[in-house]
Amino acid sequence: MQHFVRETIVRLAEARVEFVVVGGISAVLQGAPIVTVDLDICYRRTPANIAKLVVALQPLNPRARGLPPEPPFVFDERTIPKRAAGRAKDLAAIPTVESTLKMQKDQSLRADTSGHREEMQNE
User: Fold this and answer.
1) Which of 47, 23, 46, 43 is nearest to 35 (CA)?
2) Which of 35-44, 87-96, 102-111 is most confident?
3) CA distance 18 to 15
4) How far apart are the C-alpha atoms of 118 and 123, rounded to whole Å?
5) pLDDT digit string, tens, across residues 41-98
6) What is the CA radius of gyration of the chain?
7) CB of 50 closer than 8 Å to CB of 64
């Protein structure tokens, strides 16, 4: 895996950003024999998660896709929620990704709760 991909994923995970890897890198991580040079992610669009995303990625000086090099792009909580910078096919996938993230979070909470219940019964 390319260094920037690993660094980005580690930064997001360490910052506890709720995200999923999509696109070509996702296929590579699952063992697909393809080549890709970019990293596509979808993230939960809550203010708290966006703040974590900005903190994690700001040191990498990210830019929105399709913007010219000038004027400077400000990567902060105000610019991240804007969906206009995404490709149509990526934007179309957002509702599915967001519902998947919610389902995963709900399952995780249920697992934590049931594990806690078992511990209390064993005491």
Assistant:
1) 23
2) 35-44
3) 9
4) 9
5) 888 888 999 999 999 999 988 876 666 777 677 777 877 765 544 566 666 666 776 7
6) 17
7) no
Q: How far apart are CA 45 and CA 52, in angstroms?
A: 11
- Greater model confidence, 45 or 29: 45
Q: Which amino acid is at 111?
A: A
DSSP per position, the chain? --HHHHHHHHHHHHTT--EEEEHHHHHHHTT--------EEEE---HHHHHHHHHHHGGG----TT--S-SPPP-STTTTT--TTS-HHHHHHHHHHHHHHHHHHHHHHHHHHHHHHHHHHH-
Q: Tokens for 120?
A: 């209390």
Q: 33 near 87, Cβ under 8 Å?
A: no
Residue 11 has pLDDT above 80, yes or no: yes
Q: How far apart are CA 31 and CA 88, in angstroms?
A: 26
